[in-house]
Amino acid sequence: MKSKIVLILTIAIHLTFIKSFSQAWDYNNNRIAVSADGNSAPDYEHKWATGDPDDWGANAAILAILAKMEMQDKLVHFSYNNFIDAPAGPDEKNQNKLSCDGGIIRWHFDADKFYDVTTQLEEAKNSLAREMVKSTAEDPLYFLHAGLSEFVYQAVEKAIELGGLENLKHVKLVSHSGFNENHKRREWHHTWEDIQKLCGNRIQYHKIKDQNACDQRDVLWCSGKDFSPWYWMRYHTDESINWLYTRVQAHETGKADISDCGLLYWLLTGDENGNPLKFKKFIGTGIPNAAQGLAIKKTLDANASFTLNAIQDFPVITIPGFAIPYKDNARKAMAIDAVHYKGVYAASKVKLTAPKGLYDITLTSLCEIDGESTYRLKVNGEVIGEIQNATTDKDYQKQTYTFKNVKLDAMNDIQVEFNSHSNGKIPEDDAFAFSRGIWTALTFHCIEKAPEKKTANNFIAIEGEHFDLHGEWTFKNDDIASGGKYIQYTGANSYEAVVEKNICESNFEVTEPGTYTVKWLMRQPEDAEGDKSNDAWINFPDAIQIGREPIKGFHKFVGRGKVDFAMNGQLDLHGEQPWMKVTFEKSGFYTLQLSGRSELLQIDKIVLYKDMSFEEALKMAK
Known about the structure:
Layout: H1 2-19, E1 31-36, H2 54-68, E2 75-80, H3 95-107, E3 114-116, H4 121-133, E4 141-146, H5 149-161, E5 171-175, H6 178-182, H7 192-199, E6 204-207, H8 231-234, H9 239-249, H10 261-269, H11 276-283, E7 295-297, E8 305-309, H12 310-313, E9 326-328, E10 333-335, E11 345-353, E12 357-366, E13 374-379, E14 382-388, E15 398-408, E16 411-419, E17 427-428, E18 431-432, E19 439-449, E20 459-463, E21 473-477, E22 485-489, E23 503-510, E24 514-523, E25 535-539, E26 544-546, E27 550-551, E28 555-558, E29 566-568, E30 570-571, E31 580-584, E32 588-596, E33 602-609, H13 614-621
Parallel strand pairs: 1-2, 1-4, 2-3, 4-5, 5-6, 7-11
Antiparallel strand pairs: 8-19, 9-10, 11-16, 12-15, 12-19, 13-14, 13-16, 17-18, 20-33, 21-22, 22-33, 23-32, 24-29, 24-31, 24-33, 25-28, 25-32, 26-27, 26-31, 28-30
C-alpha cells in the first residue's frame, strides 16, 4: 500500500510541475516537428563554409526539454543539417547527429522520427509533408523553424502535391530568426516569404524575440564565451545532463549558445525570456527515466575474466538504425520481437571500463528451431566479427562463439547486434515463424594485459577540452589527441601583451599539496617555421608560480613539436628559459588560465607532476 501512495504522490507532483507552466499559442499537447540547420561538414560553394553550430547544443537541449516533460511521443519529425545542396559529413564528426543520437539513446525517443537532410532528403521531406497533411483544427502541427527555409519550402511543395493544401491552415510555424527565414545558400533557394506565396499564406506564423543575447551572459540562451552560467549541467547528478553540457561545449568557436531551444521553451512555458537559471530550475533533479549508468566498470577475476549479462549490463537499447529489443527475463536474455521486426537487426550496447589488453570475447546465444539468427560484435564502432546460430531441433540450446584477439582500451563501446530470421520450417499463420536472436551474455577473457600506467595523486592532467574557451580559441578533432580533441588558438599573434578576450580557464583539483612541474602536450602546424605557432601566455592565479624564483601573472610558455603532440614546455623570461613550477599550499580546486600568444598553436593537455622524473610523467601523459 505504501508503494502505491508514493507512486500516486510522484505522479501528482509531476502533473503539478507541468501545470505550473502556461503553454503558448493555444498549445495543448499537440504534435511537434523540428527542422534545424547547423551542418558541420564544410560547404565550400557558400561564403560561410559551415553552418551555425548553435544547433549542435540546441538540438540536444530541445530533446532534453521534451524528455523532461515526458513528451517524447509528441515529437513526430526532427530533421537536421537542413542546408539543401550542402555535403554530408562522416558520422563521427557529424555534430548534429551526435547530439540527436545521444538524445535518442538517453531519453528514449523514436529514432525513426529523425532525419539527416544531407543523406535522407527525400525521406525527411516526405515525413514532414505527411505530418503537415495530417493537420486539422483539432490536431494542429506546431513546427519549430530552427533552420533555413529551402528545406521547408520543399516539404510544403510535397504536402501540396499530396493534396494537403487546405491542411496547411493548421500548421503553426514558430520562428525567432530573420536569418533563418531569409538567408539563401544558393541563388535558387527560397525564403519564408516564398513559402507563404506557395501555400497562399495558409501556414500560421508566430515570431518570438531573438533568443540570442551573447553579450549578456545571464540573459536568454547564449552567454558568449562564458560557460559559467551552464556549470550546473557539468555537476548535475543526472548523467544525461552532464552529457548535455558536453554538447553545449561542442560549439566549434567556443561559444555557449543553444538559442534555438528557446522556441520550444516558449511554446511549453509561455516564457520567451528563458535563460540558464530558468533552465536549471526547469530541469530540476533531472530527466525522468533517463538512461543512467551508461558506463559499467569490470575487473578481472582469478581466471582473468569477467562477464557482461545481456539484460543486466547493456543499458542502451534505443540505437538509431536498429529495432528496439526486449528483455526476455525468463531466459535472462536479450531478444528481438519477431512479430513486428522480421528479418531486421536490433542492437544493445554498453560503455565498458576494463583493464586494457587483448581479449577473447565469447558470445552465448540460444538456438531456435524456427530460424538461425546472426550476431555481430562491435567494439568502438568497428565490426569485430559475425556468427550465425547453428540449426537445431530443440529450442533454446546454448551456443557459444569466441571472437579472438580483440583489443580493448580503458574505455570501450561494446555493441551486440542480432537479427530475426526464418528458415521456412515452422508454419505460422499464412507464413513461417522467425527466430528472435536470443543471447544471454558476453564473456571476456584477458589473454594479454597491457602494462598499466601509474596513477597517483602527484600527477594531474588538464585536457584541452576541459577549458571554457573565450575569444579566438576553438576546439578541434584529431584521433591522435587524448580523447580525440584538442584546442587551437586561431587569432592573431599577440607577442607584446595578453589580450583579455582571449583568456580561457580550466578548474582542476589538487589532492596532494606541494610543488609541481608544469608541462604540456602541444603541436605546431606542419608548415610552421622554427619558433612560430609554439607559445602561449600561462598563469596560475591562485597558486605560487616559480621560474628560478617566484613570479606573478601571465608569462610566455613555449615548446616545439610537430605531427604528434610532444610533451615539453618551459618559461621564456626575457631570454632565460627555466622549467615552470607551481606550488599549491593546500588541497582543493585551482584555476589555470591560458591566453593566445602565437597563432595556430595546438594544445592537447597540460600536465602537472611532482616527485617523479620527466620520463615517468611522460609515460603517464601519453
